[in-house]
Amino acid sequence: MKPTGIPGEGTDPAEGIFSGQRDQSGEATRVLSEFVRTAAYESFCFHPRLWNFYEQLLGGDVYLHKRKIVRQTYPHDPRTTDAHYDLIYLRGGTDTVLSSWIPLGDVPLEMGGLTYLEGSDVFGRQMEADFAARSTSLSPEERLNAYNKHMSATGGIGKDLSALVSRYQTRWLVADYEAGDMVIHTSYMIHAATQNDSRAGRMRLSTDIRYQRIRDEIDAAGKNIGPWMICCRVAPAFQPISWPG
Questions:
Q1: Which of 25, 85, 139, 224 could bridge to 124 as Cys pair (CB 3.0-4.6 Å)?
Q2: DSSP run (H or E) holding 206
Q3: Between vectors from CA 143 to CA 165 and to CA 117, what angle results, nearest 5°?
Q4: For the CA atoms of the chain, what is the radius of gyration?
Q5: What torsion do the CA atoms of 126, 128, 134, 136 make, to the nearest 10 degrees?
Q6: 227 contact partners, CB below 8 Å, separation of at least 6
Q7: Residue 193, class by beta-carbon neighbours within 10 Å (0-12 exposed, 13-18 middle, 19+ buried)?
Q8: Coil, strand, or helix at residue 117?
């Protein structure tokens, strides 16, 4: 990322200290798009500890989904990923695809990270059933489109996380993430990203990698598209978020 000017001058790029100058040219997007296509990134996705874990979890041969993402977030940027469940964007294949969210470096609470709505696999399934019932008149293409008329403009559930707490009488959970952590969620689990409030001005970097059983239906689009890039300790201890705050 150093050529983009995003890392601070005279700092170690591995620390991710923001220079204060956002990339306006799209260079950062290009760099990360190229990175997810490298042999180094691919070898990480096929790392034996990851691959063997998923083979045991899914009970057989697995398929590495083409929709792989690297996310970079600026400190104190109010724009975050909306609450959503992944099937909204992955309706073209099996609903048993699993996502690994992996922080690339330490991501303490102040830097945000992924937050989960407790018990929400059930809520996601209810939402999807409701969507299916209301979408019988939609064409197959519209039903697969995350931005159809029954979803928000962003394809997600919304940015008001506290409203979901009130609606389902539950809570959001987040953790102090460290390099080496991995969290896994189903395609129905509702999750979002919280704001990076790093006092040191550090950028947050993470990756999403998805796996499924190779014998299950594979998203026809996912077989052909390239990796997605969004610029924007296993089983860590989660704790609830207090609202407001």
A1: 85
A2: strand 204-213
A3: 15
A4: 18
A5: -130
A6: 33, 36, 37, 66, 67, 68, 69
A7: buried
A8: strand
Q: What six digits make up the tokens of 54?
A: 């998923």
Segment 10-50, tens digit of pLDDT: 999 889 999 999 988 889 889 998 999 999 999 999 999 99
Strands 113-117 and 191-194: antiparallel
- Residue 200 tokens read as 């040191």
In whole angstroms, give the CA distance from residue 193 to residue 80: 6
Residues 6+ apart with CB under 8 A from 231: 28, 29, 32, 71, 72
> What phi, psi does 167 have (nearest 5°)?
-65, -40
Q: What is the pTM of this model?
A: 0.84
How many C-beta atoms lie closer than 10 Å to residue 197's C-beta?
12
Residue in 185, 188, 204 with CA at minimum distance from that of residue 196: 204
What are the helix (H) ranges across the chain? 27-35, 39-45, 48-58, 120-134, 140-144, 161-168
The H-or-E segment that residue 170 falls in is none
Q: Is the peptide bond before 75 cis (omega within 30 degrees of 0)?
A: no
The residue among 147, 161, 171 whose CA lies nearest residue 195 is 161
| DSSP state for residue 87 in the 8-state scheme | G
